[in-house]
Amino acid sequence: MRFGVVVSEWNTEITEALFEGARNTFLKFGTAEADIIRRDVPGSFELTLGAQLLAETEQFDAIICIGVVIQGETKHFDFICEAVGQGITNLNIKYNLPVIFGVLTPNTMQQALDRAGGVHGNKGDEAAITAIKMAALKRELEN
Ligand code: DLZ
Predict the structure, then answer these.
(1) pTM above 0.70?
(2) Residue 136 CA, ligand 1 centroid: distance in Å
(3) 125's torsion region: left (phi>0), alpha (psi -120 to 50) or beta?
């Protein structure tokens, strides 16, 4: 299988840890390093277009979007989360392709760290497992 991973450059300490979690999980389940294609985008808002550009190439069994949006004092949080959630949902339907929501939406940086290799595990691992499961389901039902 071949996987695309789109990574947001905001809060890179967290997004890099999530990417490493996803990458290690793909490798553990037998994906070749060359079949994990990463592309970076400036922020989580850009994850949707980044994933769409990968989907358009028709080279992937699934795509993961990795980002972290931390609750702040402005409404940015709500707008970005709403937009990326809806955008990724739409891509799943538009391309009939698993596009996985690997976006953390914590209240604090500590909550993000806890989910990026901390006490609550690594949500990047979970995103990769979801990608593998959905890609396998798609193959099974299409063949
Ligand atoms: C502008 C912004 C803010 C305030 N916060 C975050 C964040 O917590 N996480 C994130 O991934 N991106 C953030 N951004 C950037 C937006 O996602 C986007 O890159 C810009 O609004 C430009 O479209």
Answers:
(1) yes
(2) 33
(3) alpha
